[in-house]
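We modelled the chain as a single entity of 420 amino acids. Its sequence is:
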Amino acid sequence: MSSIVKNLQFYKFSLYGFFKNLKFFEPFLILFFLDKGLSYTQIGVLYAIREISINLLEIPTGVMADLLGRKRTMIASFVSYIASFLIFYLFSEFWVFILAMLAFSFGDAFRTGTHKAMIFEYLKLNNWQNQKVAYYGHTRSWSQIGSAVSSLIAAGIVIYTGNYSAVFLWAMLPYLADLLLIASYPQELDGKIRNNTTTLREKFVEIKTGIRISFKNRLFFKLIGNLAIFEGLFKASKDYLQPMVVLTFMAIPFLDDVSTETKSAVTLGLIYFLVYLITSYASRNSGWVVDKLGSTHRAINLTLWLGALVGIGSGFLIGFRMPVLALVVFVFLFFIQNIRKPVGVAAVADTFDEKVLATGLSVQSQFDSLFASLFALVLGVLADYTSVGNALIVASSVLLLLSIFVRLPHAEVLNEPTSH
């Protein structure tokens, strides 16, 4: 494997991921909602609304990326994110939070697939296509470093202010920085821009064709399904780390003279910091994992099964009142996801013609969002009416069952064309 050229644009890609993952709200999102009086079911509904909205917006925003240019599309994304953070900061009602989630969905839909397409366009322009896994993995590792730093800063914000809402106010700053960074990207990464209604109709036909092919091409359908069911469960369940940490550490006699918010901020800040350091290492070494296993498909299959077993195991450990061990096992899910992400993105990139790569990545995101919304509702309802442990067991068992139908063969050649 040839070494990666770490030039100015490489560091811009990396810095983008670093700023993007300064999500100061993320380590406290479920605790923020619970503190506002929401139930797990309502939280599940909010998560489902976010994912369904992303799903519905994915196609039109993918068209915008091709028609209006990737840079302007990305800038619109960060404007939507900032609007969402402002609503969360100013209000406390469930129905208003729906509006905030919709704004967040606009941001995610504008961004998803677009920046990856810019990276792969850059690799293509420099004849570095064979470095997809390693290059994307290295830039993504900076995203995880950003998450690690974010958790410590977020903990400091909660300790200083004494409430969870302030994290949304401070989260606006790095997203404004990313907006300015995207504006500085070279123009050749913007993609071919065509502004007419004929092109718009052609794009909808192209996307429809891409979705049809994903169903007709059995191997591509399995690839998308394999990636989507794991990503869906991960998106829906990852924030349950927060109540697990509270369950684990609130009963331990330390920092007894401080508020619950301060104690949770200290423990969650440190744990998320460690988690994201580990996941940064995972992303950086995803290419090594593929080399050792000899196949991206083998890596995707293996991590899917491991992820399902991790969810089931942590759920049972919660039920057996072993919260510390449950927490350790659950953290491994983050490690697995950050091995899978660069591998999966590269697999999809190798499947689609570069002219419709953004569309191909959007098709994958459509399925990601669909499964995330379903898993979010299942987890929320089961957590309310049974327990968090039982919710994880059921959802992860469904993942394990579905893995039977989306197991990928080790051969990695797609014989059918993916563009027309």
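As a brief sanity check on the tokenised model: The mean pLDDT is 86. The chain has 17 helices and no strands.
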